[in-house]
Design brief:
It is a single chain. The protein is α+β, with helices and mostly antiparallel strands. It has helices at 9-14, 84-100, 126-132, 165-182, 203-207, 209-220, and strands spanning 20-23, 29-32, 45-46, 61-62, 68-73, 111-113, 119-121, 136-137, 149-154, 189-191, 231-235, 241-242, 248-250, 261-264, 273-279, 283-290, 301-307, 310-316, 325-333, 336-343, 353-355, 357-362. It has two domains: 9-220, Lysozyme-like (3-Layer(aba) Sandwich), CATH 3.40.80.10; 231-362, Galactose-binding domain-like (Jelly Rolls), CATH 2.60.120.
Length: 363
């Protein structure tokens, strides 16, 4: 059954305008944004009919709005197939497992995000409730939160590695949209383990939930008043970079940014490579890194971001996704000429840690 979006009663109370509706291929619905719409536009969300879901059993429709979001991981393989068809196959497989093995009436979670960043409705009628901003269908994803929390399954196993950039960016945008539609605070984003004795959503992803809440809040704040069109690239060969003599210089990889890049052996020592930038005004900034990838490089290189609300550490697998800008996230930064990012050698994993370039731009 195709889900047709209706205007949220909450949006109407906010004074939002009616959004145009168009038909998407496969029966999905597409909203055409207007200039007066809310701060977070609706992302592309595939309905259950789009991915060919089975007819569900009996579902309980609730009149109460959810007051939280619950993050899960599927604990399945970390697939490198980022296609839409793979995402649809994933949603279909999850529904089959939940209905056939768990004897549930439908997929337990409300929504699913693939490693390619594709967002899909999981449990029937979840999308209609979300677009209305009114009520919810009872889930089966987390005892203690099934009648009050929107469950999001994220494809992959995140006990020791982080989600792909595509998945992470979609999760941030989608959580912000859910918060906007239902009036949920960004602080009300939890992990499955907060409600049950489970490893879900994995140690690595669970440790990153504070950053998720911060990035979602930045989306809800409309970028936090950041200066328009600000962007700076700090390369390891420029004046904004600093590192000790323990950091070597290499031109080995063609994926490098600029003429060369820096490398060092991982050790439990305070010997980071620093990227400094002149931040024009306090606000939220997107930070990305560029590095050459190699199977012999580090799988969990620590990037320390000196945010205005406290230091954050993001671990990056430098064995893959090289030769491109990789998002570290969006962070609040103070104004002034200061160290913004440090690449640390302090990691228990093997392989060179790489410091090449950082890009900072207004969110």
């Amino acid at each position: 059954m195709s889900e047709s979006p209706r205007v949220s009663r909450r949006s109407a109370l906010r004074g939002a305008v009616v959004l145009g509706v168009g038909a998407a291929a496969g029966g999905g619905a597409v909203l055409t944004p207007t200039a007066a719409q809310a701060a977070v536009p609706r992302p592309t969300i595939a309905s259950t009919s789009d991915w060919g879901a089975r007819r569900p059993g009996s579902l309980t429709q609730l009149s109460n709005d959810p007051d939280k979001i619950v993050i899960h991981h599927t604990a399945s393989a970390n697939s490198n197939d980022f296609s839409l068809q793979h995402a649809y196959d994933l949603a279909y497989t999850i529904q089959g497992w939940h209905m056939n093995e768990n004897n549930w009436s439908d997929s337990g979670q409300h929504f699913t995000i693939s490693r390619g960043g594709h967002i899909m409705e999981g449990r029937h009628t979840s999308l209609r409730h979300l677009l209305d901003g009114d009520g919810m269908v009872q889930g089966a994803h987390a005892p203690g939160a099934n009648t009050s929390g929107i469950g999001i399954e994220n494809e992959g196993l995140y006990t020791s590695v982080l989600p792909t950039t595509q998945l992470w960016n979609s999760m941030v945008t989608f959580c912000a949209y859910i918060c906007q539609q239902y009036g949920i605070r960004s602080s009300q984003i939890f992990g499955h383990r907060d409600f049950s004795a489970t490893a879900c959503p994995g140690n690595a992803l669970y440790a990153r939930l504070p950053q998720l809440r911060s990035e979602v809040q930045a989306k809800l704040d409309g970028g936090g008043g950041d200066p328009p069109d600000f962007q700076v690239v700090v390369d390891n060969g420029g004046s904004g970079f600093g590192a000790s003599d323990n950091w070597g210089t290499s031109t080995y990889s063609s994926q490098r940014h600029g003429a060369d890049y820096r490398f060092a052996d991982p050790q439990t020592v305070s010997d980071a490579a620093y990227f400094r930038a002149d931040i024009p005004a306090a606000g939220n900034y997107k930070i990305e890194t560029w590095y050459p990838a190699n199977a012999g490089y580090n799988s969990a290189t620590p990037y320390v971001i000196y945010a205005s609300d406290g230091n954050r550490t993001v671990h990056v697998d430098q064995r893959s996704n090289g030769g491109r800008w990789v998002s570290l996230g969006t962070f609040p930064l103070a104004a002034g000429n200061r160290s913004v990012v440090a690449v640390s050698r302090w990691t228990g994993t093997t392989g060179y840690v790489i410091a090449d370039a950082v890009r900072i731009s207004s969110a």
